[in-house]
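input
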Amino acid sequence: MRKVTAVALLLALAGCAPPTTFPPQPDAPAPAPVGMPGPAGPILGFTGDLRTLLLPRPSGATNAGDPKSDGTITLEQAAASFGDANQGMTQLRALGFQRGAIEEWREADGTQVSIIVFQFGDHPSATTFTYGAQNSYTLNQAFDAPIGIPGVPLGNAYQSSAAGTDKRWLTEVFFTRNNMTAELSITGPTKIASARVVSLAQSQYARLP
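output
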């Protein structure tokens, strides 16, 4: 499965260039299972507003999202972030993609944080999606060895080994809880401390049902 990152998804949603340029991510060898329920059926698991599960914007931070977006992500928008939107649609449907939500903010020092939560048909499907995203970073030599997230099963953080061409550093975090996946994408003028990465991931994990 091709990895869907916050940077790529923001590009699809907002129609703007991604904030950081890094080497292309390889496709991860995570084939989608066949025959999983599609997104047309009833929402499984949590039925409330996904946006309420996202970490709130910190005091002093400003909104960095598309002002035209309501913070929700449809199947079509998620599929558009794949290299091949039709393939993305097929794979997301096979995993029972139901819906998504996004929060994004910019801090005073220029650090930008994006959080995306996707809801799938069941836990195995969410796990498949997360493994696909993680594998793409594990295989990329431009990133350090993954950082495990204590208390967050299947949670890993990946930090770039050097700044991108725009002199910004990238950190990506992926994990699964029940039938939901979460991605935290952090870019900034300096490499974010791993302790803060872990804290953010643990806080977001605790908000998921």
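quick obs: The chain has five helices and eight strands.
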